[in-house]
Amino acid sequence: MQVLSVASEVYPLVKTGGLADVAGALPAALKAHGVAMRTLLPAYPGVAEQLKKRKAVASFPDLFGGKATLLAGQAAGLDLLVLDAPHLYDRKGGAYGDPQGNDWDDNWRRFAALGRAAAEIASGAVKDYLPDLVHAHDWQAAMAPAYIRFTGKRPVPTVMTVHNLAFQGQFPVSIFGGLGLPGAALSLDGVEYYGGVGFLKAGLQLADAITTVSPTYALEIRTPEFGMGLDGLVRVRDHVLHGIVNGIDTEVWNPESDPHLAATYSARSLGARAKNRRAVEERFGLARDEEPIFCVISRLTWQKGMDVLASVVDDLVGMGARLAVLGSGDNSLEGSLLAAAARHPGRIGVVIGYNEPLSHLMQGGCDAILVPSRFEPCGLTQLYALRYGCIPVVARTGGLADTVIDANEAALSAGVATGVQFAPVDGDALRLAVRRTLALHRDRKAWANMQKQGMKSDVSWTHSAARYADLYRSLIAAG
Fold this sequence. Notes:
Blueprint: E1 2-6, H1 18-31, E2 36-42, E3 52-60, E4 68-75, E5 78-84, H2 86-89, H3 107-122, E6 133-137, H4 138-141, H5 143-151, E7 158-162, E8 170-171, E9 192-193, E10 196-198, H6 199-206, E11 209-212, H7 215-220, H8 224-227, H9 231-236, E12 241-243, H10 273-284, E13 293-300, H11 306-319, E14 322-329, H12 331-343, E15 348-352, H13 356-365, E16 368-371, H14 381-388, E17 391-395, H15 398-403, H16 409-414, E18 420-422, H17 427-442, H18 444-456, H19 462-478
Parallel strand pairs: 1-2, 1-6, 2-5, 6-7, 7-11, 11-12, 13-14, 13-16, 14-15, 16-17, 17-18
Antiparallel strand pairs: 3-4, 4-5, 8-10, 9-10
Helix pairs in contact: 3-5, 5-6, 10-13, 11-12, 11-17, 14-18
Enzyme class: transferase
Family: Belongs to the glycosyltransferase 1 family. Bacterial/plant glycogen synthase subfamily.
Binding site for ADP-alpha-D-glucose: 15
């Protein structure tokens, strides 16, 4: 099968979050299931330069206000099609916003172009390449099913994957005239959403199948609490909705060979983690002692429960915990955590920003990771933690509930516990979860068994890639 994946970020070329990790790892995992996946992404600054054997394979004289070229090449084992449109993507800042963190005003145009290019490729724009199916990821790629449906020259089945329903790509109706879609597309059965244009809504409405990144999240988004205004549409289309949990790249995330660790190790040599722990202490200015180090590797936002964490950090230190935080996000939350570090020197360390090598070291050296998300479609951080013997302490929601086995009495007795779950997401529940974790840490035998059980967990793409391949085949066969 030839599958075109459409994504706004792909690790290791460009990454702002877990979407990039998934888009970067899934193609390799699908090879074993007879799927050849090419990935279409924008040519942000520096992306095209990473392509090997780069060549132009198509051109668009006027793609939303300027000339664009489609470049084919390989990078990091990925087969890529890069949309080189300087008027849309060649600018300082991030993938989605300016250097000050504000969304680009023309994001609707930038990501409509990505969807339009996908439809052109599906219609034969690239010589000798006709994908059997198009797989779009999140709102930035969600217009691909719309363009294929309304402007495509050949019917191609489409899959729409929701990584986070909270990010929807909603724009005023005034942009519709610039999308190049027929008037019929501005309807309830098309791209119209509450009087405006909804990119993600369009993908959910028009794709042949919808997937989201864990079974529990697939259930949650049917409800008003988690549906973010789209729960009605999700319920209408739940017959084509599939919850397929994410995996991780177990070569990139491998404690036995990770170059970012101070010391590599396995489940048989957990003592070597001590060198990584010392490196974490040094990097975060933490006092050297034997009290457990809890870490946070996250966007510092309300969704991730970081306001709840900020409200209880003094209590966590009082219980004996140390805390290392890596992330960025809301200015107020960054300030609250930095202030906590100033109040508790040697007990709390905070690094503001994104640092991929440091995140590996933290997974390999910290004792436990806190993930107090209010909602979490899948979450990859806890999967990395399981792989590295860093005990996940997670909210009981979405993919966190699906991937971490709570250390209750039954699970501990059976020897299958891999972490700690808690609910609801509030200060009292988080304090209790940390207290439980501290008690478990004092029982060295139980703690080591939890680490080993987590490291035995299958967090790879093996099972999930097979489910995607089966879904692709069924859609192509239904053709």
